[in-house]
Amino acid sequence: MRTTLKIFLVLAAVFAVAGSLIFFFKTKLSPPQPLADGNPHLEQAEQCVAKIQGAPSDSILNARFFEARHLLTFLADNGLLTDKDGDMLKTEMVERYAPLYADKCFGHFKESYWDEKVIQQIPLQIAVAKGVRLSDGESAVERSKEAHDVLDEVLEVVCRYDSAKLLARGKTYQNWANTKRRLSRAQRFMNDEYLGCNIELVRSLDSLRYRLEKSHYAYLGLQSRRLAGYRSMDKEDYDSLCQVVDDEFRHYEDSAHIVYGIPQREEEVDSLRHEMMSNKTKASGYYLTIMATDKIVKAGQYIFEKIME
Fold it and tell me: DSSP string of 196-241?
């Protein structure tokens, strides 16, 4: 019994000494370390934003931007990021994305063929980027001058492209001043740093002058034929119409070949002018007859009044 008790006491002493040594090493030689500071969600978000920089293609760049945007929105909405950290990362995200996306757009603008589907997506994609909001409600893109300026530059190219396409579809002559203005705009678009690379657009803009000249010539024919309607208007209105038609013919004959840059339709215009002069001659005879008849009627009335006196 005594032997067993002694053994128990010895073991207890050994365990006590061992525990003291372990405590000494843990607390003195290797004191407890404080818990690591930081937000694991913040680190995850930083890594997600950083991946935007190395995107190898348009589709991957946009996919990584959407991924980062979704993650930051989720973390911010659920209180897993502070407003300060969330705003910082959103600003960093658009500042990384904007110049990369713009470079890819400008690269596309330099190509000779533009994919219409890609062009149509650009304003939508930029609208999404500008829709990223900071904690105070301001757009992250608007907060960053660099991101704002480069995306607006891209939008300006798309806006000019849409305007150029609309202009290139024109085919109706309206008036001389309008025609010169439209052709001047078409030339500016063709000389544009980016639009001038689009072969199809340039071809369409260049053909505008042929379509307008054809419409202009048809307009001259219409004006010439209007002079045949002298019986339905008084002489004063007819003389005003003649002045308008003469001005149109003079503009065409003097400047059309310069403005349109194509040979003049000399024989066709001479034929129209002959038709115009023929209508004027007929009108002149008609109005002379009207005037003579009017004088005869008035003279008859005068004689009748004298007889009745």
Answer: GG-HHHHHHHHHHHHHHHHHHHHHHHHHHHHGGGGGGS-HHHHHHH
